[in-house]
Design a protein that fits this description.
This protein is an all-alpha fold and 188 residues long. It has helices at residues 3-14, 18-40, 43-59, 70-104, 110-131, 135-145, 151-158, 162-187. The protein has 2 domains: 3-86, Orthogonal Bundle (Rna Polymerase Sigma Factor, Chain: A); 109-187, Arc Repressor Mutant, subunit A, CATH 1.10.10. It is flat and about 65 Å long. The two termini are 39 Å apart. Residues 24-88 form the RNA polymerase sigma-70 region domain.
Length: 188
């Protein structure tokens, strides 16, 4: 969609034109949903969040006239909404874990419980990072870290060079560090 057409749609939507809104929705919804699904790896949640974004856009249509780039605006909304969703999910999960741990370990040290929660969150983030890896990198990482195989054993089993195994492990660890660092920046 070119910029002039988009501006015309934005102007029309800001005045309450439902057909213009539908056109923007049909154009942008699949992209926004795909973006969110790529982050959450859950199509149902991605669809719900995407719909919420467009509902919010319609409810705040009078504010749309100041938007220069609707694509950037929608993706920024999507990113912020996903981060809030993840934060709420983590907080809810933490709350549930804390309640469960309090009921079973009422006399346990609070620091120990907190450390366990952080360890579980870290484990979850690592599993998310691993699942997003390309298949060969994921396989090599799992063989190394979960099965405890050496680089030579992995290279032999997969019929690839030891250097390729090392490169994949280096990239896998970089992926994990990047995701963990990203979430630490956002949530702490």
């Amino acid at each position: 969609m070119d910029s002039a057409t988009e501006k015309g749609y934005i102007e029309a939507v800001s005045k309450g034109d439902e057909q213009a809104f539908e056109s923007l929705f049909l154009h942008y919804f699949p992209r926004i949903k795909g973006f969110i699904c790529g982050i959450l790896q859950n199509e149902e949640e991605a669809e719900d969040i995407s719909q919420d974004i467009f509902v919010s856009m319609w409810q705040n249509k009078d504010r749309l006239t100041g938007i220069e780039n609707l694509n950037a605006y929608l993706f920024r909304m999507a990113k912020n909404t996903v981060f809030r969703h993840i934060e709420r999910s983590l907080l809810f999960r933490d709350y549930q874990q804390q309640q469960a741990e309090r009921s079973s370990f009422s006399s346990a040290n609070n620091e120990t419980i907190e450390e366990e929660i952080y360890a579980k969150e870290l484990e979850y983030l690592i599993s998310v990072a691993v699942e997003k890896m390309p298949s060969q990198r994921k396989q090599i990482y799992k063989m190394s870290r979960m099965e405890g195989l050496s680089n030579d054993e992995i290279a032999e089993r997969l019929v690839i060079s030891k250097r390729t195994v090392e490169n994949h492990l280096t990239l896998a660890l970089a992926d994990i560090r990047k995701l963990i660092g990203f979430f630490i920046l956002i949530f702490f």
